[in-house]
Amino acid sequence: MAQFSSSSVEDFIYTFNKSYESKHVAYEDNFWATKMNLTGCSSDMLTSSKNELDAFLGDKDVLARVRQELTNKDVTVEQKKVLKIFERTLMCNIIEDPAARELRETINRLESDLAQDRNRMALGYVDPLSGEFVKASSVQLRNTMRSAESEPLRKACLEGLRSIGPFVCDKFCEIVRLRNEFARGLGYECFYDMKVSQSEGFDKKTLFVILDGLEADTRPILAQALETLRASKGDAAAEPHNLGFTLSGDVSRLKDPFFPFENSVDVWTRSFAALGISYRGATMRLDLCDREGKYSNGFCHWPQPAWRTQTGEWVPSQANFTSLASPRAVGSGHTALVTLMHEGGHAAHFANVEQASPLFSQERAPTSVAYAENQSMFLDSLVGDAEWMAKYALDRDGNPLPWAVIEQEIRDTHAYEVFMLRSMLAVPYFEKRLYELPADEVTPARVLALAEEVEVDIQGMRAGRPLLSVPHILADESAAYYHGYVLAEMSVHQTRAHFERKYGFIVDNPAVGTDLAEVYWKPGNSAMFLDLVKELTGAPLSSVAWVASLRRSVEETCVSEKAAYEKAAGEGAKFTPGAAVDLDMNVQLVHGDEVVADSAVLGSVAKACGVYKEWVAKM
After folding, report:
1. Helix (H, G, I), strand (E, B) or coil at 474
2. Any bridge partners for residue 325, and if so which?
């Protein structure tokens, strides 16, 4: 507190912002190094920097100073807005009880240890032909389950995914018990209730009123989809190791040549540029390829939040994002591109937050999970549009993905899109029930059984992506988080419907990028998610558009998508492949410690993409 004493409100705000910024950067640098398994990374340094950030945001004397300044009649409107975000953020972190602070530090250490254990896990499958163990990441296992012709191989990959649960469960159960002890000590019902209340601004009960309505509306759609699947493709098609292959095996191989991995960065940048998206001077570090020891999920974090200082200086963001592509694997190019559109959407959002403190543009509480995920999921949804594929899904010779392949995918999968929704719902329902367990029931055996119970209840079968293989549930920053994807997907459908009514089209429409930046992105967490959805779309958030899309017939979908495809094919993309587009950003393409290409050094993003393509070809 000494650094803030005897200072004016202006000096106090300046010092707080700069102090927060430095501690945020230190933690995020260690987070990236640890998750990417870089040379010299240290779980101890990650824990230490996390504890320092937590201690800074948990200082009750600083909160008292903030509240004192809020009563100052001379504080300006802008200063009051900044002080309020200080207060909201501090309230999400203040822990007055020394024992509770010590408990949080213990949880941080256990989570860091578990993350390191999980990264070093010998994950893979036993080859059904040779009997030998083959190392593979969770992403590679899921990709193989979607594309491999051999059913025994697909089953072996599922067993590999299921091995994650028993591996993590001992330490995870200890973390769950301590998370609940910590949250209840702060007056919350449980850890899930604490996380929802801090990030969304409403409690767990309110959240599940929303989710229960969606669950009830889509349960009969799920039952019909499972009945249709078994009737048309046999009971074996609904087995968890077969489901993904049944729905995407043939089409995934047919689409694969039109999503070359090495072109993914170029496609992402051209597509976003055509939407009028700007990164406002941001630096983007992309680590896209899988390797041993790397964190097993794509993510985007911001070691440098974007903000505007009191003197009017613009501080551009710095973003780190990652995917787990295996360039030679069938479907890897499509997976990588969806990840780029998703994580690049996060980065675009946070690069455009223009407020007077970095606290407005950081992704943790009080930033709404649903608010953050809405932006990325809206942009990655474009990859599934026939209109988008007609312009951007090109093979290495520049030929577009044929309509016949898209039509086959619609006819093969549209009736089963509810499976994705129910898979998303399973995670928050599992975590809700997990954190509602009495402490003495949080044992490996009970948690493993609970995961299976929820899979069967919500998804109608054991899951092809076992709940305990979902990496979000392990780490503090993403635990009790997945409901945000569900709420965001509601908003995605509602936002898409709004733009289609307002403009008639979305792909290559710069007005869409302008509206996103002005309404959704610029405020950061100074506005509530539900309010922003209503401001942009003119209606409260609901699942109406999402459920309507699930109920739309295959024939209706084919007709509308074919019309959009033919129109887009006649127009072509706004920017041709390899074009030097201006997104106002620097891109660094890395592979662990290796910097493969840097647009600042090479002169343009297009040139960096060219160097990266050559590097991928040599892998």
Report:
1. coil
2. 289
Helices marked H in 121-203 — which ranges?
Answer: 138-147, 151-162, 164-185, 191-200
Taking each continuous run of H as one helix and of E as one strand, the counts in the chain are 25, 9
Task: Please state the φ and ψ torsions of residue 594, each to the nearest 5 degrees.
Answer: -85, 130
Contact criterion met (CB below 8 Å) for 47 and 34? no
* Residue 175 burial class via C-beta count within 10 angstroms: exposed 0-12, middle 13-18, buried 19 and up: buried
Preceding omega of 523 cis (within 30 degrees of 0): no
Q: Is the pLDDT of residue 251 over 90?
A: no
- Using DSSP, state whether 174 is helix, strand or coil: helix
CB–CB of 146/192 below 8 Å? no
Planar angle of CA 284, 289, 291, nearest 5 degrees: 125
Select from 315, 322, 361, 369 the least CA-distant residue to 344.
322
Other CB atoms within 10 A of residue 570 CB: 8
Tens of pLDDT, residues 384-429: 999 999 999 999 999 999 999 999 999 989 999 999 999 999 999 9
Tell me the CA distances in angstroms from 26 to 100, 110, 322, one per residue in order. Answer: 24, 20, 19
Above 60 in pLDDT, residue 573? yes
The CA distances from residue 158 to 135, 139, 146, 247, 333, in Å, are 13, 11, 11, 16, 22
Helix axes 418-435, 164-185, angle to 10 degrees: 60
Give, as one character, the DSSP assignment of residue 296.
Answer: S
| C-alpha to C-alpha distance for 541 and 149, rounded to whole angstroms | 42
Here the tokens at position 290 are 């899988």
Distance CA 167, CA 35 (A): 18
Within 10 Å of residue 171's Cβ, how many Cβ atoms? 17
The structure tokens listed for 48 are 């230490």
Q: Rounded CA gap, 267 and 395, in Å?
A: 12
β-pairing, 314-315 with 318-325? unpaired
Instruction: Note the helical H segments in 310-460.
Output: 332-351, 369-380, 386-392, 403-413, 418-435, 444-459
Helix H or strand E encompassing 62: helix 60-70
Stated pTM of the model: 0.89
The 10s digit of each residue's pLDDT in 348-366 is: 999 999 999 999 999 888 9
What separation in angstroms does the CA of 141 have from each of 134, 422, 613?
Answer: 10, 21, 25
Closest CA to 484 of 413, 431, 436: 431
Helices 138-147/332-351 angle, 10° precision = 130
Helix (H) or strand (E) holding 264: helix 264-274
d(CA 267, CA 575): 10
**Residue 520 DSSP symbol:** I
User: What count of other Cβ atoms lies within 10 Å of the Cβ of residue 165?
Assistant: 18
Max CA distance (Å), the chain: 77
